[in-house]
Design a protein that fits this description.
It is a single chain. The chain is α/β, with parallel strands linked by helices. The chain has 52 helices and 26 strands. The strands form seven sheets. It has a five-stranded parallel sheet, with helices on both faces. Strands 10-11-12-9-13 form a five-stranded parallel sheet, with helices on both faces. A five-stranded mixed sheet has the order 22-19-26-24-25. A hairpin with a 4-residue loop joins strand 20 (1410-1412) and strand 21 (1417-1419). Helix 33 (942-955) packs parallel to helix 34 (971-982) and helix 36 (1025-1033) packs across helix 38. It is flat, with a radius of gyration of 52 Å. Mean pLDDT is 84; it is low at 1210-1217.
Length: 1489
């Protein structure tokens, strides 16, 4: 089979193992699809790749191991031959050393002589240096004294300045004024006396210092002032100073501030005296220092002169020293030359010693390595087998399936079944790559989780072309970084993409074909299959033969999250699942949060990793090089210095690495401990990403990119409340991330899906925290009720009691049925309370957990589940999660960018333009200014849109593309255009899009890329009468109200029209009871009707009520309506709201809400706020039960969506008790066991030769039942074989399996059956009852006493048969007949035989009202009784002209609550009320409750 070195026994084992791998992957693929809905096929080509890869890898590895072993053995051999050479070398080197010693001695003698000369010069220089230091000391002393003098003089400066300032205050005027004092106060006289003392000539103190003497002394003012200015302040006579100090300055009144009050001039003189004395006293302190400074300066001059002399002497000495140095250098050069010769000789000896020593120590390590390689050779075959299987088969699986294949399927088989030795704890990745390569990949942008590393390893080693499934774009980011500018990137359909492939083929380039769909252009088939021609040198692409370069490499890529590639394509490619995993994303987000919170840690971790990788790379390179040199060295290699140095470097590096590795491990442990603190943040974010990623299961329009999520995560971390302590900070981060993701996601969801998301988020968080039991959650969501029981208590319906009985089978709820029966009163009070979710459960049940309370509540009050779930979330996550979130368009706009458009998800009849225009006006982007381009797509507007986008991207404009869902074929182009125009665009450039979500997932056409890259925002109609009525009125303004000449009539009718619009719009939320079918009523209908109203009122003298009702009800609003009963409802609304009493007297639009009087625009809004009753179905004419029905349906849809969103973890079914397979098998067996045999039509037809209309109906029903029973039996038998693995699972079988697991009726059965809203268990019980009924009828083919009308596939045929039978009997023309009914007061059991003509019917239920048996008329429905069983109805045919129509209500009959296409007939029922009441209440008869 394979030509390589293997034992003969191994070859058989290898064949067995390869076959086992192939079959085990087949089995795993089936499970993979069943649980994950992902397709993986194994083909003969996969098997052949496994063989080829095994062969190539084994040869490569054997060669690699053999070469390494050979190098090491060569090295050891060289060691043995080297030892003898070292001895000879030592003897030769000894004689050379003796000769060199003599030359060295000669050089030493010369050096000694020069040394003596140098010593003399050095002594002289030392004397010079000492003298110079003395001069420097004197200089320092002089500088010090000078600084001290200057500092002291600075202290005197303020006094001198103050004295001068005091003089500046004196002038001729104020001195003259002072002189003019006749008898000044003593204080002033003292000042003048002090001045006289200081200015006394020759220091003679005048005895007469009286005022008189002072006046004389001051004499001429100018001269006196000049004397003060020129006063010799540095030489005040001692006796003058003494007198001033003792007689004046000590006087407390000698103060400028005190004296200023008496004389300004005297105050100035006072200040001068004080400050001049202060200055002189400081100056006297400084004088000795100044003298000392003068002396020091003299000494400095003498020292400097002496220094100059010394310096001249030093110059002479330096010249002499230079001559000596030149001689010394010459001698030294000679000595160095001799020394080098000695060193070279020593180095050779040392080299020889080192070489022998080092190689001897390496000998042991190399010997161990040889043994290791020999051991590796033994396990190599098994290791490569496992590795080849891994590369060939596991690429498309997720982590858990890969692990199970390797650890649970393949390794045990190798070890136990075929006994091929393998390395213990073998890592397949390590066989193909090394840490250095993985580190390089990481630096290139590959996520560091195990799954990504495996994918990269497979991608770089697989033999088929790799096809990356990469919805989060992580793989393609790595590929583009890895290959850089050398990578050629193209996509199918791109202009010139075939040319790009041809060029890459010829030049051996790596080419990436990105964004593939599920179908690939057939032109690429030869390339994908490597179908070469001309001896493998060419490949045909289209009609060209292209040269194939052996280096050419093709990489395929898709953004599709779950593509279904056909087996033939999977045979040609290796599928690689790059979809991010929860733990992989957790690792990425942990790095992200730590890099924000602790950048030091993350930086240190990166540095450590890089260092370790660098060391590993270096060590590997050194060892490889060393072994190569050793094996390549010829003869003696003792002279190879590089070889020895490399050996030493290798050893030193190895030792260093060992230390670094130990250090790194310690640091890594510390870093990881610190990082682990933040893991809860990453874990929560990762969990939330997968919750929002699963939203696409509800509606494919909900798609979010990982890139946007990562940015959101970063923003949430940065905006979290700052807390110092790490545990509190982590809690703050977790909460911030949760709430930010909640707000971001909520704005993208339609209102009906927000609670689904919120509940799923809460459930997944609580499951992760282990606060709720998976089994209980599974029961709450599935709520499988298999049997129907009659209720023993009046406050629970049969359906609720059946749910309670199903509940009582669980351990936690055992005995609840007995408790409800035994303590009916408290349970009745709880069940019938307005908000049971807020009340405590009766008895001991109040201790139950919140989720257990939810389970009980769903059984008895499913209508309250939406409120109960909100309360549950509020209790578990906090009130802010259930508060209404209002769209902040400005905030959403701030998050957008040229590369991130905004997508408005619209409800029918709405557009996003209005809000956007308001925002644009605020920011300066309007249609009038040309900066806002509005393109409504459809009708060939694609080119207009392209031109608008191109212009906007260059000039920074806004573009809104409305209704992108209308241009399905252009959306891929749009995706590329948005990508292209966003690159290098103007920073103000923005794109807005609007789209309606598709009615069903199969009709969804918007590409994932377009959705993921957009910020999604929902735009919905308001809910509730108050909001709807205000919104309707907002379409008008005060000018509208005043524009008509018939103002009173116009206003009254316009308000009534607004109420009508609010009714028809708001009624949609009540489902089929509101409207049989859904219609896109919009504000355009309302505004058009307002214009029609204005035109008609202006044109006619009286209000044309009939015309207006016709135009509004049949043309404008009626234009949307397709169902006759809905058209009748619209007509009745208009008859009630638009008639003469609207303008002539008060008209009640709803109970308690009259038509308003004549008001202005704001008055109408105020009237609505004040007068409108609280929200209730009565505002729409419906019974309060309609809301219960609507809420029940809503909660059922919610739980169905939640069930669909639950992650399917196939590998741990023990958690939920049973695996999906087991559950399906149990259901399947149960149905097959109970399924009745088909009716034998031949036998039945022979029983009665009479072929009356009734008998024919019976035959038709039996035939249809046979078809259904046959389909059920055959499909279940096939599914059974499929589950056993005896039959290939088809798509139909898989769909059927899914339906059975979710308790829903498979589509293939539903198409052949009758309309029904039941779950599978109830539907099958109903089927058995129908079969029993038919069986009874076919016994003798006589009409049953009371016919179960609901049991027919086609009830119309039986009702027609009644008419045909009576027409024949009475000979009436069939086209002139009609069916009339009479509701009896009896039940089915009261009748023993059929009537003489016509038929008794039972099995009908009334919805929207109640049949009053006593009065025999329709009456108001009982509260909380959604449908009431009708008594037996007697149906017979009469001529049309004899039909009773007075006091009757024409009541439509439908097969199910879904109404619409399930219409059967119309029965006229007696009524005391107006017909309008029952029409507005949506009253109908149903064949299925």
């Amino acid at each position: 089979m394979i030509s390589f070195r293997c034992k003969p026994l191994d070859k058989d084992s290898i064949s067995l193992f390869m076959a086992h791998v192939h079959t085990s992957v087949n089995e795993m693929s089936t499970r993979y699809y069943r649980n994950e809905r992902r397709y993986n096929y194994t083909t003969p080509k996969s098997f052949l790749e496994q063989i080829s890869l095994f062969k190539n890898l084994l040869q490569k590895k054997q060669k690699e191991v053999s070469l390494k072993k050979e190098h090491l053995m060569n090295g050891i051999q060289k060691l043995k031959t080297t030892s003898s050479q070292v001895g000879e070398l030592k003897a030769r080197l000894a004689s050379q050393e003796a000769e060199l010693q003599l030359r060295s001695q000669d050089a030493e003698a010369l050096i000694t002589k020069i040394g003596l000369q140098t010593s003399k010069v050095s002594r002289e220089k030392a004397v010079s240096d000492a003298e110079e230091q003395k001069v420097v000391a004197i200089q320092t002393e002089v500088s010090q004294k000078q600084r001290e003098c200057e500092a002291d003089l600075l202290k005197a400066e303020p006094a001198l300045v103050a004295a001068t300032a005091a003089l500046d205050t004196l002038n001729r005027v104020n001195l003259t004024e002072l002189k003019a004092f006749p008898t000044p106060p003593n204080a002033v006289t003292n000042v003048t006396a002090a001045v006289m003392v200081l200015l006394a000539p020759g220091g003679r103190v005048p005895k007469d210092r009286s005022w008189k003497a002072a006046k004389v002394f001051m004499g001429k003012v100018d001269v006196f002032l000049q004397a003060l200015i020129n006063y010799d302040k540095e030489h005040i006579p001692e006796n003058c100073l003494k007198v001033v100090n003792e007689q004046y300055l000590k006087d407390p009144e000698f103060n400028p501030n005190l004296i200023r009050t008496k004389s300004f001039a005297a105050a100035g003189l006072c200040a001068w005296v004080i400050n001049i004395v202060k200055f002189y006293e400081v100056y006297c302190d400084v004088e000795p220092k100044r003298q000392a400074l003068a002396q020091a300066n003299l000494e400095l001059a003498a020292a400097t002169e002496k220094l100059e002399g010394i310096r001249k002497k030093l110059v002479d000495l330096d010249r002499n020293l230079s001559r000596l140095t030149a001689s010394f250098e010459k001698a030294t050069a000679e000595k160095v030359r001799c020394q080098e010769e000695v060193n070279q000789t020593n180095k050779t000896i040392e080299l020889a010693n080192r070489l022998v020593k080092e190689l001897e120590s390496e000998k042991i390590r190399w010997g161990q390595s040889i043994k290791s390689f020999e051991a590796q050779e033994k396990t190599l075959c098994g290791d490569i087998l496992l590795t080849a299987a891994f590369v060939s088969y596991v690429g498309s699986f997720t982590k858990q399936y890969r692990q199970e294949l390797v650890d649970c399927k393949w390794i045990p088989f190798l070890q136990q079944k075929v006994s091929i030795p393998i390395t213990e704890r073998l890592d397949s990745i390590a066989m193909l790559t090394d840490d250095a390569t993985i580190a390089t990949w990481s630096m290139e942008g590959l996520p560091s989780d195990r799954m990504s590393t495996e994918n990269a390893t497979i991608l770089t080693h697989c033999e088929r072309w790799p096809l990356m499934i990469d919805p989060q774009q992580q793989g393609i980011k790595w590929i583009k970084n890895k290959y850089g500018p050398d990578l050629k990137v193209t996509h199918l359909g791109q202009k010139g993409f075939l040319n790009a492939i041809e060029t890459a083929l010829a030049f051996g380039d790596v080419i990436l074909i990105e964004n593939l769909d599920e179908k690939i252009d057939p032109v690429l088939d030869p390339l994908l299959g490597r179908n070469t021609i001309k001896k493998g040198k060419y490949i045909r692409i289209g009609d060209k033969e292209c040269e194939l370069n052996k280096n050419f490499r093709l990489i395929l890529h898709t953004k599709l999250a779950n593509p279904h590639y056909k087996p033939e394509l999977q045979a040609q490619t290796t599928l690689l699942n790059f979809t991010v995993t929860e733990d992989g994303l957790e690792a990425q987000l942990l790095t992200e949060v730590v890099s924000i919170e602790r950048p030091d840690l993350e930086k240190l971790k990166l540095v450590l990793t890089k260092h370790q990788n660098d060391f590993k790379i270096e060590l590997k390179h050194l060892e490889d090089d060393l072994l190569l040199r050793l094996s390549a060295a010829e003869g003696s290699f003792l002279d190879d210095t590089n070889l020895v140095e490399r050996l030493e470097t290798t050893k030193a590096t190895a030792a260093e690495i060992e230390c670094k590795v130990m250090e790194a491990k310690e640091n890594e442990t510390k870093i990881n401990e610190a990082r682990e603190n933040y893991r809860p943040v990453a874990a929560r974010a990762s969990l939330l990403y997968f919750v929002i990623n699963d939203l696409r299961k509800i509606n494919p329009i909900y798609q979010f990119s990982l890139k946007a999520f990562s940015a959101l995560f970063r923003r949430a971390v940065e905006q979290a409340d700052a807390v110092e302590a790490v545990p509190e900070r982590v809690s703050s981060l977790v909460e911030s991330v949760t709430h930010t993701v909640f707000l971001y996601t909520s704005q993208a969801l339609l209102e009906k899906d927000r609670l689904t998301f919120l509940s799923q988020m809460a459930f997944q968080i609580l499951l992760r925290k282990k606060e709720i039991e998976p089994l209980e959650l599974d029961f709450l969501l599935r709520f499988t009720v298999e049997r129907t029981y009659p209720s023993p208590v009046d406050f629970l319906t049969a359906q609720s009691w059946s749910a309670i009985k199903a509940l009582a089978l669980m351990e936690e709820f055992r005995g609840i049925d007995r408790d409800i029966e035994g303590s009916a009163k408290p349970w009745k009070k709880w069940v019938e309370s307005e908000c049971p979710e807020k009340e405590k459960l009766p008895q001991e049940w109040k201790k139950k957990s919140l989720i257990q309370k939810l389970i009980i509540l769903r059984a008895v009050r499913p209508d309250r589940m939406t409120y109960a779930l909100r309360n549950f979330v509020e209790e578990k996550l906090g009130a802010k999660y259930v508060e209404g979130t209002r769209l902040d368009l400005v905030k959403a706009f701030e998050e957008s960018s040229p590369a991130t458009p905004m997508l408005f998800i619209l409800s029918p009849g709405l557009d996003a333009l209005k809000d956007l225009e308001v925002l644009g006006k605020k920011l300066g982007f309007t249609i009038d200014s040309g900066k806002f381009h509005n393109v409504s797509l459809g009708q060939g507007q694609e080119m207009v849109a392209e031109m608008a986008l191109e212009k906007a991207s260059k000039e920074g404009h806004w573009v809104i593309l409305q209704n992108v869902h209308l241009v399905a074929k252009w959306l891929r182009t749009l995706e590329k255009l948005l990508e292209r125009f966003s690159q290098g665009s103007h920073s103000d450039y923005r794109v807005f899009m609007s789209a309606e979500s598709a009615p069903t997932p199969n009709e969804h056409i918007i590409p994932p890329g377009l959705l993921e890259n957009s910020i999604k925002i929902t735009n919905e109609s308001p809910t509730g009468m108050l909001a709807n009525l205000h919104a309707a009125l907002y379409n008008f303004d005060q000018d509208t109200l005043e524009m008509c000449s018939k103002e009173h009539e116009f206003k009254s009718i316009l308000f009534s029209l607004c109420y009508f619009h609010a009714c028809v719009s708001g009624r949609l939320r009540f489902g089929p009871q509101g409207w049989s079918r859904s219609y896109p009523f919009n504000s355009g209908d309302l505004t058009t009707c307002a214009n029609i109203l204005y035109n008609y009122l202006e044109a006619t003298p009286n209000v044309p009520w009939e015309d207006l009702r016709y135009l509004f009800g049949e043309i404008m609003y009626g234009g949307h309506i397709t169902d006759n009963w809905d058209r009748k409802l619209c007509r009745v609304y208009l008859e009630e709201f638009m008639n003469a009493s609207l303008t002539e007297d008060e008209l009640l639009l709803a109970p308690g809400f009259a038509s308003p009087p004549n008001l202005d625009y704001s008055g109408y809004h105020q009237y609505i706020e004040e007068m409108l009753p609280p929200e209730s179905p009565a505002l729409y004419g419906l019974h309060p039960n309609a809301e219960i029905e609507f809420l029940t349906v809503t909660s059922n849809v919610l739980f169905r969506n939640l069930l669909e969103m639950q992650p399917r973890n196939a590998l741990i079914p023990e958690e939920l008790g049973q695996s999906t397979e087991e559950k399906v098998k149990n259901v399947l067996d149960d149905i097959l066991e109970k399924l009745p045999e088909e009716f034998n039509m031949a036998d039945i037809m022979q029983k009665n030769s009479n072929r009356s209309p009734y008998v024919l109906v019976c035959f038709q029903e039996c035939e249809r039942m046979n078809i259904l029973l046959q389909e059920i039996r055959v499909s279940l038998q096939q599914l059974d074989l499929g589950l056993k693995g005896e039959l290939m699972m088809s798509l139909g079988m898989e769909a059927q399996q899914s339906a059975l697991s979710f308790d829903t009726v498979p589509d293939t059965w539903g198409k052949l059956a009758y309309p029904s809203t039941y779950g599978l268990a109830q539907w099958f019980n109903d089927l058995l009852l129908r079969c029993r009924e038919l069986d009874t009828w076919t016994q003798d083919l006589t009409l049953p006493a009371v016919v179960w009308l609901s049991g027919f596939f086609n009830p119309q045929s039986f009702l027609t048969a009644i008419m045909q039978t009576m027409a024949r009997k009475n000979e009436w023309p069939l086209d002139k007949m009609c069916l009339t009914v009479d509701v009896t007061k009896k039940t089915k059991e009261d009748y023993g035989h059929p009537p003489r003509e016509g038929a008794y019917l039972h099995g009908l239920f009334m919805e929207g009202a109640h049949w009053d048996v006593q009065s025999g008329t329709i009456a108001e429905a009982h509260l909380k009784e959604l449908t009431s069983a009708m008594p037996v109805i007697f149906a017979k045919a009469v001529p049309v002209d004899r039909q009773e129509t007075k006091h009757t209500f024409e009541c439509p009959v439908y097969k199910t609550k879904m109404r619409g296409p399930d219409y059967v007939w119309a029965f006229r029922l007696k009524s005391k009320e107006k017909t309008a009441k029952w029409v507005l209440a949506g009253v109908a008869l149903l064949l299925e409750a």
